[in-house]
């Protein structure tokens, strides 16, 4: 297996686990393609996260600069989608980024010991409607709700900072976090992720409930994440993604 790692984002721990590892800068598209050809790669998987605000600090090579200049919009879908098309033209197919991570994608249902209470259920339902609108516009995928009022909407700062901003606004009131996929989520990249750090932020910010999309949200360190949520009294429920009937089956862990 060959790994092309981004200097700005990837962990140095890859040095110990990857059989072949090449480091590139975030804007070095030409070098990335060159390395993939040298290694005989015809299929690739995008893994990990690049923070959206990094777009303002990219130092592009000529190929990446040309690509960016051709885009009418420089949001996530446009930018990564354009990179995928360039790779395809070079004979490199991007495959579903969850192909090896299916156990981390939850089925619909309540994943934690505690069920949402009446207020949390109402906030989840309200938040899902709002979150799906902003996700459709490729603005963000997370909203934070209190009493069916939208307290904070994610832009480029990411889920955790959105939760922290909501806590500052409400002064410690109980919050509900809703994180969704896009209606036409491209599972090759930008798949929603929830990890242990988000649970820790929720605990610190008095966010007591989390709603996510089933089948389209990666739960990293899944067993530990759910255990941490249980210990903090946080309830997590996975809903059917947009376009399908939502259900609340208990026990689909």
CATH topology of the largest domain: Cytidine Deaminase, domain 2
Q: In percent, how much strand structure appears in the residues? A: 15-25%
Q: Considering the protein shown, what is the CATH homologous superfamily of the largest domain?
A: LpxI C-terminal catalytic domain
Strand order of the largest sheet: 5-12-10-8-6-7
Helical residues, percent: 25-40%
So what's the CATH class of the largest domain? Alpha Beta
Backbone CA Rg: 19 Å
What is the number of beta strands?
A: 12
Q: How do the helices and strands follow one another from N- to C-terminus?
A: EHEHEHHEEHEEHEEHEEHE
Q: Return the domain count.
A: 2
Distance between the termini: 31 Å
Helical element count? Answer: 8
Do you know the CATH architecture of the largest domain? 3-Layer(aba) Sandwich
Mean pLDDT over all positions: 90
Structural class: alpha/beta
Shape: globular
Largest sheet: 6 strands, mixed
Overview of this protein structure:
With about 250 residues, the protein is α/β, with parallel strands linked by helices. The protein folds into 2 domains: about 1-95, Rossmann fold, CATH 3.40.50.20; about 100-240, Cytidine Deaminase, domain 2. It contains 8 helices and 12 strands. It has helices at about 15, 30-40, 60-70, 75-90, 120-135, 160-170, 195-205, 220-230; strands spanning about 1-5, 20-25, 45, 95, 110, 140-145, 150-155, 175-180, 195, 205-215, 220, 235-240. The strands form 4 sheets. It has a 6-stranded mixed sheet. α6 packs parallel to α7 and α7 (about 195-205) packs parallel to α8 (about 220-230). It is globular. The protein starts with a strand and ends in a 14-residue tail after the last strand. Mean pLDDT is about 90; it is low at about 245-253.
């Amino acid at each position: 297996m060959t790994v092309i790692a981004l200097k700005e984002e990837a962990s140095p721990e890859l040095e110990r686990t990857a059989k072949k590892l090449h480091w590139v800068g975030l804007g070095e598209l030409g070098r990335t393609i060159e390395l993939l050809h040298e290694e005989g790669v015809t299929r690739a998987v995008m893994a990990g996260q690049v923070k959206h605000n990094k777009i303002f600090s990219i130092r592009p090579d000529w190929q990446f600069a040309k690509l960016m200049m051709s885009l009418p919009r420089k949001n996530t879908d446009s930018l990564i989608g354009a990179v995928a098309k360039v790779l395809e033209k070079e004979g490199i197919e991007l495959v579903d980024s969850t192909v090896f991570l299916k156990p981390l994608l939850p089925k619909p249902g309540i994943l934690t010991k505690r069920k949402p209470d009446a207020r949390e259920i109402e906030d989840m339902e309200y938040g899902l409607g709002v979150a799906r609108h902003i996700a459709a516009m490729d603005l963000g995928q997370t909203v934070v709700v209190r009493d069916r009022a939208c307290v904070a909407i994610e832009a480029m700062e990411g889920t955790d900072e959105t939760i922290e901003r909501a806590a500052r606004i409400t002064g410690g009131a109980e919050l509900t976090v809703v994180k969704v996929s896009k209606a036409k989520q491209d599972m090759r990249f930008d798949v929603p992720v929830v990890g242990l750090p988000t649970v820790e932020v929720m605990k610190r910010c008095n966010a007591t409930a989390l709603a996510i999309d089933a089948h389209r949200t990666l739960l990293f360190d899944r067993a530990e994440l759910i255990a941490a949520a249980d210990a903090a009294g946080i309830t997590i429920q996975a809903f059917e993604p947009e376009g399908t009937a939502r259900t609340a089956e208990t026990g689909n862990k």
